[in-house]
Amino acid sequence: MCRSAWVNQVIERLGAETMTSKDKMGLIGKKLGMTRIFTEEGVSIPVTVIEIEKNRVTQVKDIKTDGYCAVQVTTGQKKTSRLKKPQRGHFEGTKTIRSKRATLDNPEIIKEVLTSKDPVTAGRGLWEFRIAEDQKFLRGEEITVEIFAEVKKVDVTGTSKGKGFAGVVKRWNFRTQDATHGNSLSHRAPGSIGQNQTPGKVFKGKKMAGHLGDERVTVQSLDIVRVDAKRNLLLVKGAVPGATGGNLIVKPAVKA
Fold first, then answer.
1. Which of 28, 65, 178, 237 fits as disulfide partner to 183, beta carbons 3.0 to 4.6 Å?
2. What distance in Å separates the CA atoms of residue 223 and residue 239, rounded to the nearest whole number?
3. In a domain, 71, yes or no
4. What are phi and psi of 58, to 5 degrees?
5. Residues near 101 by Cβ (< 8 Å), separated by ≥ 6?
């Protein structure tokens, strides 16, 4: 089966709505920290300040070639010397080297370098957003925080702070066992984790001690308090996951 026929079957199976509706463009930002601002009535609002530099489009995907519509973006700066060859080719544009064999008249090998894509300034990473089929973007286009000017709520995704190996009390909020009355060495122990002969095993997903944090977390429906296009800042009400300086994915809220 050819790829185009397979893509058409996927579209028919999923339906056109899943490809075109509710797919909204987002941006990549950096967490600067938390502060508070006051309303005209004097009410204090805790806000997280997110710096959203210009996001540059590095690749545009469509249904015909990729099976879905999406935009790949980057932000920030990264030295070219720090890029691997595949990354350098992706940012600078695909280069095709065509060599001509040496002849008696011209003993030197001639190489022609053909570039098929416009170069884009390398950033600190690559991220992808699903978009509707009718949304159009171009490689190299810059997207700013102004796209959130008419948006009221956003979903923010980040990587939570890593806290290392933690016990069940800290990790899963288990209550502690008795401090006295004959109990010793088991004050913060989880207790029984298994069964008897049937089923004779510990079920998957059992809440036990282990690594806490450093995982992808999404906070939904945060109110946008202010959009500062001049300073590339977005202020949202409440806290967002991750440490100061961490990357954040900001998208219009799904449940808005």
1. 178
2. 11
3. no
4. -105, -20
5. 109
Answer for the pair 140, 123: CB distance below 8 angstroms, yes or no.
Answer: no
Chain-centroid distance of CA 20 in Å reads 21
For residues 227 and 154, is the Cβ–Cβ distance under 8 A?
Answer: no
What does the pLDDT look like over 40-93, one tens digit per residue?
999 999 999 999 999 999 999 999 989 999 999 999 999 989 999 989 989 987
Domain presence at residue 43: yes
On whether the CB atoms of residues 109 and 156 are closer than 8 A, the answer is no
CA distances from 51 to 29, 181, 227, 231 (A): 5, 54, 10, 8
Number of domains in the chain: 2
CA gap 244, 81 in Å, rounded? 27
If asked whether residues 220 and 255 sit together in one domain, one would say: yes
pTM of the model: 0.80
Range of 169's domain? 163-189+206-212
**CA-closest candidate to residue 148, choices 35, 28, 64, 42:** 28
pLDDT tens figures, 154-167:
999 999 999 999 99
* Alpha carbons 26 and 28: distance in angstroms, whole number: 7
